[in-house]
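Table S4 entry, Fructose-bisphosphate aldolase.
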Amino acid sequence: MASAGLVKLNSSSSQWIGQRSFTQRHELSPRSGFRRVAFSIRAGAYTSELVQTAKSIASPGRGILAIDESNATCGKRLASIGLENTESNRQAYRQLLLTTPGLGEYISGAILFEETLYQSTTDGKKFVDCLCEEKIVPGIKVDKGLVPLPGSNNESWCQGLDGLASRSAEYYKQGARFAKWRTVVSIPCGPSALAVKEAAWGLARYAAISQDNGLVPIVEPEILLDGDHSIERTLEVAEQVWSEVFYYLAQNNVVFEGILLKPSMVTPGAEHKEKASPETISKYTLTMLKRRVPPAVPGIMFLSGGQSEMEATLNLNAMNKSPNPWHVSFSYARALQNSVLKTWQGHPENVEAAQKALLMRAKANSLAQLGRYSAQEESEEAKKGMFVKGYTY
């Protein structure tokens, strides 16, 4: 693998780290007598494709639709409109989303759950093909969820590295071209140095394995909204987390041009006594990114994290009022789907109206990516917060 931790030194002139070859050329300096060493780097087999895929997803006016909820979480969404959690109901809802005409104008990528990647419409058309026809890149959630982290302050770590290489290769064959791995950091729980290091190392190993199998990794250490901390505290923790993440990404030889980030916006805790304005959130979030994220990274695709549909869009818009070194966009789940679900209600006759609701939210965030969004015509429903304490996917 391009990311393998095993280092092999050739007896001649090549040093191998995974599948990357660092060929040494030695020159003797006439003045100092010191030996200069130059390295030529052979990229991994998928590097050019990874870079192109990342650029395609990070294209102007477009972002990511995240519909990678586990079956259990999808069941909670369906239950909110009175539907049972059955495969046919999950298929019907995902079909509504993925067959929306014109969706590709505003959406460049869609993150799918494993079940969805292999599903088809009721007419037998693969969901992957539906996406590709709209020039939307199919993606896949590859982590196996959060479990308690022993030795920590009641914190979690993300599992799923075992067997990830073989699973990623199969996902690639099925048509996926990018991947998502979500881990979390809790400010009320510390965070402990152990939890931060575990999150960063896990993300780095996943990213390297994904790239080795042709998938652009979305790197997502979500800093949870839970807590009553200030925005300054969130900034402090975010800088700490992203510093560790990029350190370990580099240690694992991850190609920065072939990744995407999915950070939390820098906001006060959900229970903090004062709310921050979009301008304040933009200022703190961009400060964090400029201090920690190399400009080689093509795209920053923010998660909504329980903000209302309108809040998530307003904050994104504020960040795009001035030029940024990266494509600053969205990778929203609830902030794109909430109105859709409530419009659909599980009734076939409401599908067209629900798809229009999806297009409306997608267009609003497309305008926000371009810095041109206005909230004047937003509904009261779009203004309602969606924060759930201890929320799990």
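The longest strand covers residues 20-28.
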